[in-house]
Amino acid sequence: MTAQILDGKATAATIKAELTDRVAALKDKGVTPGLGTVLVGDDPGSKAYVGGKHRDCAEVGISSIREDLPADASQADVEAAIGRLNEDPACTGYIVQLPLPKGIDANAVLELIDPDKDADGLHPTNLGRLVLRVSEDITSPLPCTPRAVLELLDRYGIDLAGKDVCVVGRGTTVGRSIGLLLTRRAINATATLTHTGTRDLAAHVRGADVVVAAAGSAGMITPEMVRPGAIVLDVGVSREEDPETGKAKLRGDVADGVRDVASWVSPNPGGVGPMTRAMLLANVVDAAERQAG
Ligand SMILES: Nc1nc(=O)c2c([nH]1)NC[C@@H]1CN(c3ccc(C(=O)N[C@@H](CCC(=O)O)C(=O)O)cc3)C=[N+]21
Question: Quick check: ipTM above 0.90?
């Protein structure tokens, strides 16, 4: 079997076109959504992601505000940037690019984000609402990558009800929160959260109808681990240097041969990554619509 492709790039383009219309409607009401970013240091990956987010904003008509701080910024410097974005009426939502440099307490920083401006859904209030099921509608922001995975499957008409989903990776932004979404009654999947320390990871993966690979370990999901016909989403990213060109190359968690076994795969790049960016924009537009009443 050769897997069909869950084309995140094309789907993100469709979503951006929809968001462009919603932004135009907000502007007619006198509201311009504005995304702020806080970037600390000069990690090339983080710089590239943040640059991409600002380009995405320009494409759909969202204004953007940058807080770029040097690598040696103090905790107080980062917290001051958060304070400025909380106060700035032009900023309707913002993100703090993670990871923050060593020495900065990321949880303390996330706590200071105004929950109404939390475009990543990572403030404890918003993650708490997700756990507490305060609302299963989108009335508070959801973490972008989990939302991206569900939206990508939904746009291909793939129904998760009753499916066994194996999530590989226990990070806050993906693994831990996606199980909460998958097991919502509206989705009704069964989720297993595994990680690189799981005793028989291969057995868990092989038992799953759907695999969400978000461990950040290049090529770790091999064809032998995947049940024929399974759906495989490749979320993890590792940056490796290409030995021939010396340039950075992105590698996902899913080995190439999985395409010969699975029924659907999301490529990486071109899968969940572009969808994550689109969901960030969706979170910003959702919040601006809520703020506009
Ligand atoms: N506060 C915060 N929020 C995040 O959402 C967040 C973060 N920190 N830190 C890092 C991770 C990673 N992440 C990606 C977003 C887009 C692509 C993406 O668009 N990738 C392209 C390739 C991009 C390239 O070529 O460099 C693709 O998959 O096709 C990848 C990864 C968001 N993250």
Answer: yes
